[in-house]
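Extended Data, panel c. Modelled sequence:
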Amino acid sequence: MTKTVIQFIALFLVLLVLQLVCNKIVLFNIAMPVVFIYLILRLPVNLHTGWVLTIAFFMGLILDIFDNTPGMNALACTMMAAVRRPVFNLFVSRENDVNIPLPSVASMGVGDYFKYMATLVTLYCALIFAIQAFTLHNILLTLARIAGSSVLSIIIIFGLESLVSTRREKRL
């Protein structure tokens, strides 16, 4: 196994445990931090789409098993992984696409990485809370949960990014 694969497996295990702890934290009965999707955000851009979808599905499925949520995270993770590449291409030009092995603040810059990450985190939160509510009865509460969880998750993921990313990554 290569060093990168071992690092991703270790990161997955750490994020899974961290997410299981974070699932017990709900601020004001609205915002719940979502940190395990950082691994999907961090996967190499040139990784084949089939692998990305498979990794995301099994990440969500493992969290579903521990969290007793029947397939909700697996669906949201798979949908997030399906749109990851098009969202990345929205914010990075085609010429620079080859130069970025891993999406990160160091390789993309703060602005582009923030747009990339915020879009995918908000999509994940919208999917998971829409599936959880499964009704339009209390739409304002659902929208508040999406917004609160997205903001809280973005802040935590930026903190994780500062811990995980290395200075050796090439910046555009």
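Confidence is low (pLDDT under 50) at residues 168-172. This feature is highlighted in the accompanying rendering.
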